[in-house]
Amino acid sequence: MFLFLSLVWEGIAAGITLFAGWNWEIFFGTSLIGLIIMALTTVIIFITNPIKINENGLIVKNQQSGALYNNWVLINWDDIYSVKPITLICFKYLQLFCKGHGRPVWIPLSVMKKSMFIEDLVRYVPDENPLKNYITTGKILDVTKLVKVEELANSEMSEKQISDIYVNEAFRAKHAMKNGAIWFYLIAGLSIINTIAIFTGADWRFLAGLFILQFVDILALVINEHTPEIANFTMFIAIAINVFVVGILIVIGYFANKQHKWSFIVGMIVYALDMLVAIVFRDFVSIIVHVVALIGIYNGLKAKIKLDEIEKKSMSIVP
After folding, report:
1. What integer pLDDT is reported at residue 23 of this predicted model?
2. Which of 77, 88, 93, 272 has the fewest other C-beta atoms within 10 Å?
3. For residues 105 and 161, is the Cβ–Cβ distance under 8 A?
4. Membrane spanning segments where (predicted)?
5. For 93, phi and psi rounded to 5 degrees?
C-alpha cells in the first residue's frame, strides 16, 4: 500500500516540477516531503486502525489489493495458518497469513511495549492456533518460508493441516507471480500510449514505457521533417518496430502468467537493456521508474521459484 502511494506521489512530484520548471532540487525536495507525510500518515492509520476481536475471529478492514480499506472482512481463527511478528521502531505488528488471502493481514499488537490486543487474543484464540502459540510462548513456526521441511513434517500438525499450508502458500505465490507478470502488460500498454502521444505532438510521456521505442518514434519524426518524400515509409517502419516490440512484451507477459520462469528472465533482460538506453541519454527519472518495474518483475520471478519449491516439498511431505 505504502509503495503504491509512494509511486503515485513520485508522479505528482514530477508533474509539479515540470510545471514549475525542471529542477532536480525541487523534484527531490517535493518527493522527500511527500514521502515523509505519507510515512507519518501510514503510521497513524496503522496504529488507529480499528480491529474487533470475538470468539469467531478478527474483524478487520479489508487490506486486500484494491479494497482501499473501505469494507470490513472477518478472518476466522481457522483461516490463520501462520504468523510473522515484525517490530518497527516503537510498535510491533503481526502479519497473519490466512487461507484465501494473497497478502498477509496486518494487525497492530503493541505500541511502546503497551499491549493493544494481547489480552483479547489470549481470551478468544483457540489453543491449537499458531497465533495463540506465538502470543503465549513466543515460539513460531514460520511456514511462509517453507525451508524447514523436517520441522514442518515432524510438527504436531496433522497431514491435512500441512496440506492446507502448502495449498495456501501456493495460492500466495501464484498471486505474487501474477502481480509480477502484470508489469509486462503495463509496460506494453504505456509504450503504445507513448507512441500515440509522440506522433500526435503531445509533450508528455509515461516513464515506465519502453525508452527505445520513444527514441525510434522521435527519430522517425526528425527524418520526416528533413526528408518528407519518404515520410510514409519512415512512419511504416517506426510503427512496425513498435508493434513488433510491444508484441514481444505481450507474449512474454502471457507466458509469465502461464508460470514459465524463462519469460520473467527474458523480460527482465529486455527491460534492463531498455534501461541502458535511458542511462546513455541520462534520463534519470526514467531510470528510477525502470528500476521500480524491474523490482516488481523480479518479485514475480521469486514467487515462481517459491511456487516450484512448494510443489516439490508438498510432494515430499504430503502423500
Report:
1. 58
2. 88
3. no
4. 24-47, 182-200, 235-256, 262-281
5. -135, 165
